Amino acid sequence: MEDMGKYIGAGLACLGMLGAAVGVGNIFAAFLQGAMRNPSAAQAQFGTLIFGFAVTEALGIFSLLIAILLLFAV
């Protein structure tokens, strides 16, 4: 019964990785849409794009870390 709870919790924690994957796609889609509308402002927004990508990927990695901790540390 205890193992079942670990697996359910780890599976729920892994849903954060799904959100990260969708978030990265949305970030790049919004950047490309904005760059197509105003190409002269695209270079100024590139730093914001990379920062948003890094934060979104970090959230996915954190959710994987929580899942691993639930499986092996608890």
TrEMBL record:
Top-level taxon of the source organism: Bacteria
Record keywords: ATP synthesis, Cell inner membrane, Cell membrane, CF(0), Hydrogen ion transport, Ion transport, Lipid-binding, Membrane, Transmembrane, Transmembrane helix, Transport
Residue stretches spanning the membrane: 7-29, 49-73
Endpoints of the signal sequence: none
Annotated membrane topology: Multi-pass membrane protein
Site (Reversibly protonated during proton transport): 57
Alphabetical list of Gene3D superfamilies matching this protein: F1F0 ATP synthase subunit C
Main location: membrane
Domain named V-ATPase proteolipid subunit C-like: residues: 8-70
Cellular localisation: Cell inner membrane; Membrane
GO cellular component, one term: proton-transporting ATP synthase complex
Gene Ontology MF annotations: lipid binding; proton-transporting ATP synthase activity, rotational mechanism
InterPro entries named in the record: ATP_synth_F0_csu, ATP_synth_F0_csu_sf, ATPase_proteolipid_c-like_dom, F/V-ATP_Csub_sf
SUPFAM superfamilies cross-referenced by the UniProt entry: F1F0 ATP synthase subunit C (SSF81333)
Family label: Belongs to the ATPase C chain family.
Subunit details: F-type ATPases have 2 components, F(1) - the catalytic core - and F(0) - the membrane proton channel. F(1) has five subunits: alpha(3), beta(3), gamma(1), delta(1), epsilon(1). F(0) has three main subunits: a(1), b(2) and c(10-14). The alpha and beta chains form an alternating ring which encloses part of the gamma chain. F(1) is attached to F(0) by a central stalk formed by the gamma and epsilon chains, while a peripheral stalk is formed by the delta and b chains.
Function: Key component of the F(0) channel; it plays a direct role in translocation across the membrane. A homomeric c-ring of between 10-14 subunits forms the central stalk rotor element with the F(1) delta and epsilon subunits.
Protein name: ATP synthase subunit c
